[in-house]
Amino acid sequence: MASSTSFKLVESFLSIREGVLLKGHPMQWQRTTSFFSCAHLCLRKEGCRYINYKASTETEGVCELLKDTSRDHNNGYIDGPGWFHGQIVHSRVSARTGSNTPDFKFTFTTLGAVGSNGPIDSYGYKGTTLQGKIKIKNGIQLWTVPLSGSYVIEAWGASGAEGRQSADVSATTRAGGKGAYVRATFVLTRGKVLKILVGQTGCTGKVGSPLPGGGGGGTFITSSTDVPLIIAGGGGGGVAQPGNLHEGDPGQTTRNGSQAGGSNGSGGNLSQQGSPLALLECGAGGGLNGNGKSRMIWVGGKGFTNGGNGGNSPIEGHGGFGGGGAAWRYPGAGGGYSGGGVVKDKNETIAGGGGSFNTAKNRTAISIMFVFQAILFVFLQSGRSEMIKRSAFFNTDENVKLESNEIISRQTSRSVLSCSQKCLSEPLCLVFNYGSSSVNRGICELYKTSSDGLKLIHEPGWLCGHLHGPKKVFKECKTWRTKDGGCCVFPFLYHGENRHSCVVDKLLGLWCSTTDNFDVGKTRGVCEDFKFTFTTLGAVGSNGPTGISGYKGTTLQGKIRIENGIQLWTVPLSGSYVIEAWGASGAEGRQSDKVSAVTRPGGKGAYVKGTFNLTRGKELKILVGQRGSRGKTGSPLPGGGGGGTFITSSADAPLIIAGGGGGGVAQPENFHEGDSGQTTRNGSQAGGADGYGGNLYEKGSPSASFECGAGGGLNGDGKSGEIDEGGKGFINGGKGGNSPIGGYGGFGGGGAAWRYPGAGGGYSGGGVVKDKKETIAGGGGSFNTGANPKKGEGLGGDGKVIITLLEAEKEKFQNMNLAILLQTVILCSSPPRSQSLLSLQIKEGFHLVGHVIDRRKAPSVLSCAQLCLKRRHICRSLNYRNNERNMVCELNDKGTDSRGYTSLVPTSGFIFAELINLTAHYRPSNSKGKHCTENSSVGSNNTLEARTNFTFTTLGALGPTGPKFTYGYQGTPLEGKVTLQNGIQLWQVPLTGSYVIEAWGASGADGREGGYGQGDRRIAAGGKGAYMKGTFNLTRGTTLKILVGQTGGRSNTGANLPGAGGGGTFITSLSDIPFIIAGGGGGGYAYWRTTKDGDPGQIYGTGSRHGGSEGAGGELYDRVYPSGSLESGAGGGLKEDGESGNFAEGGKRFVVGGEGGRLKYGGSGGLGGFGGGGAAYRYPGAGGGYSGGGVVKDRKYTIAGGGGSFNGGADQEKGKGVKQGDGKVIITLVHKAN
Predict the structure, then answer these.
(1) pLDDT value at position 598?
(2) Is residue 834 part of a domain?
(3) Do 281 and 355 lie in a common domain?
(4) Do 357 and 406 belong together in one domain?
(5) Helix (H) or strand (E) holding 513
């Protein structure tokens, strides 16, 4: 669309209406290819203000241009199916109205700078189109695009300096290579900042003989973040020596530099044939990302991202600014996208030219020139009321098409306007292509490509539009947005009560008032979707974000506080939420800092998803894992571990955690990718377990330490090496490990890297395992307490969290005091006898339609309820309305169904109430003058139904200690009813009556043969926990102590990895008198000769394998050496601890806390389960229980016993080896006392 003729620049806005046309005042009628062609004609036609357009064929349509008059045209509009009407609502002509030539050509120079450094000021642009438009930063020119549109960019690289035989004027010379020339067309957006480095010619040496030339600098045009648009390579320097006369190579038109030049953006190399490692007194050219090679003090050119300075020389044969290499005895090479190199053999030395780069398609192989005659900004606005605030400007280009692989969708559309509307409604869409395929249909392609450096190709009949302004123009909201662009007002008055969040309605969904009093104003809007995306907020490395500006314009704006990098967020509305979490990936490992060096990627982070019931006002702590960093100094450069992503309560109780990936390593003969974040709870490669950090393990030398860090877990730090740090545990801040070479672990507990890679953080940190041939960094473990769990491998890069409201909690019934009073009146009005306990659930502002069986007048809602009770055999609900003139009581034969209030209609002034049967029987008092008991109100424990279940769990706790928080009981009958005492749960009996108690002990851990990285060749199962059931008469207010047994852990030290014992499950009185106890299983043991499963929890009082009896702990017994001690722990009982071995402790007795056994000298593996499970080191641990299990060893095998059980109830049931995993308790009310 470039033209050699002069034209004036017109910037216009066009308002468009579909399905109408304006009659009268025609100026011109002709056929055009599209609506936008018609609009461009109007822009060029003096006096034109309106257009009508209708497509008549696939490739053209009718265009009517209408003149501008002072007459109001509103009465001239008529319906016109298939027509589009446009009105120019604003036009602005270029400021230089005295000339028809647009002033949009910009020529950038070196501003008089010479040598290896760039210009220091922009004074040389005085009187040009660049006056006042340039900033200089370290010699690089920063320029802001003045207007959105299509630009031609031409770039020339600088030439290398000539080489001279001596300083004599008549000396023989050889020219330096000329710079390359590249040209392309780009679509640039107004306000974008470009970085422009104009290459400078190299310098010829001035002292001595010969005097070779320095390399010329490349010319670079990139985005502000160093993403290249176009680069022209510089030429190599010339050389004139006796027997060695050679011109420098020119700048290359391909991406690679010549003569041992670099590739893929790296710097060039120096090469001497026959002696590749010999020293050459010169410098290679710098590339985009890497410096040119240099020998001794003759510096190669710097890479563009390192400043782009030319190399320096003691004889002043400096390389040109733009990465030119320096010259002394030999010439320097040219800079460019990839730097040129220098090659020497016996006869000659040649300096290579730098490579070039061009992202555009329409290439012809620095000047920037605006090339479009008119810019049409189309203002798109829907007529629907809920979309009034959703608008944008699109810059449109005809007969061109975007070519990109970032396509969102490809679909049919009836017109270009429909296509643009589709782009508006797609949040990620920034660019669209539209090509007509018939009169009323075409192809619409939506893209998410940014408008920086778009690749446009010539395509007749197509139109490309790209976003010019914000897609949604919403005013700022301090509370919550509505879908029509308004703001919620909190609190607002609704039926006399203040509401502090969106109201849940079955018909309307979530809505809020847009005034402070809905009862008066009656104005409301539908609340915007409750979806929250948490990111790293741009933070990188081992520390988390410090500011929240990155959430501006999102649903999290103003809703986040930062505390040491962790984001604190308050749940806005009670309901069911889906939480998705991605851990961060580990950094790649590189063999060196060269762009062309061999690499191995870091492991990707894990992905976990679950559904959670969250309560409004609850605060969550969210740590979004950050990617690890690669080392920057030396060789090799391993990668740091990726951080885990954590979502916990404010008290650090975990909801969901996604593990981070391990770092990659690329060393000679040691190329290995990092492990991915694990979808199980334990970290890989000597990783931690039960929320602890990972370990460092060298095969053949288990106690050795080496230069890297393991990943941090929820509760413990990763192990640190000799120099590098392990990642911190979440409760210790979650920072990544630090490294002296910059190989930091990512925020979220990633381990640091120096000589070896760092491991990933997570629920349990990843470890690092090294042997003679390879080193592998493990991924962190994950954790998920949600319903409907999903897991898998995530994406590369930083972590992420998305929290989406799945279903809001139904609006709680109002006026419960009214329901209580109503119930008391109803009950006390009858004679003293057995009767049903009934209550009314009330919903204001609604009435049920279509089910009325009777309609009467009633003075109050209580009187209406009495009428319904009298006809209780057919009346199920009521509608009531009371005002000065009308008191209506409607009795209904239907209430709610399983789908909710399907026939409810919002009606101001009405109350809907439904009869609810709370108990099967109720017996009032016989006291004189009273017909009701004191417990007749709704909300008392009398409302408990028979067969009510209370299920007690481990609350997500793992290892030797019990839970610290009761968050997991939220939304269950135990919410607010349980307190914790050192992990033991205290619960008060709610009603006097008969209860069935069921208890399951925890299983022991599996034993596995095979050390780290060897696989699991044999597996021996841990014993399952016992099951006990009995019936007990319990009195209201009695406090029970409940310890739910936890699974044992597996050892992570040595070639054989035995399992620890599972904890027993205990239910006792407050004074430790047992009601029922279920024994835990023993740990498994796998050895190369044999495997032995652990014993199950026992159904009798005595533990197995030299287990205890009558509440005592178990023993350790070696049949070969009876006086010896085993490296394991026996199970604890009710009254006594289990016996401890050389390195492992026995389980603790219940009366002192019931903790599982630990390793005596530290370590996170092989810990006994809470409930008295014995620890495992070389041999397995035994199960806890009423009496602890023991451990027996002979020459061929070792077996860990199960804990004993106890049952003091009636109607007993029991089973041995029933429960796999953690224990459990279910208490069921089966009969309430009268």
Answers:
(1) 64
(2) no
(3) yes
(4) no
(5) strand 509-513
Contact of 1127 with 1178, CB cutoff 8 Å: yes
Mark which of 468, 488, 504 sits at the end of a domain: 468
Q: 210: cis peptide before it, omega within 30°?
A: yes
Q: How far apart are the first and last CA of the chain?
A: 93
Do 142 and 82 share a structural domain? no
pLDDT digits (tens, 9 = 90+) for 86-140: 877 555 444 333 333 344 678 899 988 889 999 988 888 888 888 888 999 999 9
Cα gap 1176→883, rounded to integer Å = 76
Amino acid occupying residue 954: T
Q: What is the pLDDT of residue 365?
A: 29
Do the Cβ atoms of 1108 and 1214 come closer than 8 Å? no
What pLDDT does residue 537 have?
87
Q: Which residues contact 573 (CB under 8 A, 6 or more apart)?
A: 501, 502, 504, 510, 530, 616, 805, 808, 809
d(CA 356, CA 287): 10
Q: Do the beta carbons of residue 485 and residue 474 sit within 8 Å?
A: yes
801-830 pLDDT tens trace: 999 887 665 443 333 333 333 333 333 333
Question: Residue 1216: its pLDDT value, please?
Answer: 81
Strand pairing of 768-770 and 696-698?
A: parallel
For residue 37, the surrounding DSSP H or E stretch is helix 35-44
CA dist 1140 and 1145 (Å) reads: 4
Q: Which two tokens stand for residue 727?
A: 């990642």
**One domain, residues 1058 and 1165:** yes
- Residue 379 included in any domain: no
How far apart, in whole angstroms, are the C-alpha atoms of residue 782 and residue 252?
51
DSSP state for residue 1110 in the 8-state scheme: T
Residue with tokens 């059931």: 1029
Q: How far apart are CA 681 and CA 779, in angstroms?
A: 11
Strand pairing report for 606-614 and 575-582: antiparallel
**Domain assignment of residue 854, given as a range:** 839-895+904-915
Q: Of 755, 789, 809, at which residue does a domain stop? A: 809
Are residues 754 and 724 in contact, defined by beta-carbon separation less than 8 angstroms?
yes
CA gap 1216, 327 in Å, rounded: 85
CB 358 within 8 A of CB 222: no
Q: What is the CATH number of the domain that holds 85?
A: 3.50.4.10
Give CA–CA dist 752/769, Å, rounded: 14
φ and ψ at residue 908, rounded to 5 degrees: -65, 135
Question: In this structure, are strands 140-144 and 391-402 parallel, antiparallel, or unpaired?
Answer: unpaired
| Together in a domain, 78 and 141 | no
Report residues of the chain scoring pLDDT below 50.
Answer: 1-9, 70-71, 92-103, 361-391, 451-452, 470-474, 810-837, 898-901, 918-943, 1012-1016
d(CA 42, CA 71): 19
pLDDT the model gives residue 1170: 97
Residues 729 and 719 sit within 8 Å (Cβ to Cβ) = no
* Domain count across the chain: 6
For 53-106, the three-class secondary structure string (H helix, E strand, C coil) is: EEECCCCCEEEEEEECCCCCCHHHEEEEEEEEEEEEEEEEECCCCCCCCCCCEE
**Residue 633 belongs to a domain:** yes
Domain assignment present for residue 663? The answer is yes
Do 865 and 780 reside in the same domain of the chain? Answer: no
Two tokens, residue 850: 């279509």
Q: Say whether 571 sits in a helix, a strand or coil.
A: coil
Residues 6+ apart with CB under 8 A from 291: 267, 300, 301, 302, 303, 306, 339
pLDDT score recorded for residue 278: 58
Phi and psi at residue 864, in whole multiples of 5°? -60, -40
* Tokens standing for residue 338: 């990839």
457 shares its domain with 354: no
> H/E element holding 419?
helix 416-425
* Token pair for 842: 């009330």
pLDDT computed for residue 752 by the predictor: 94
pLDDT, residue 394, reads 65
**Residue 558 shares a structural domain with residue 660:** yes
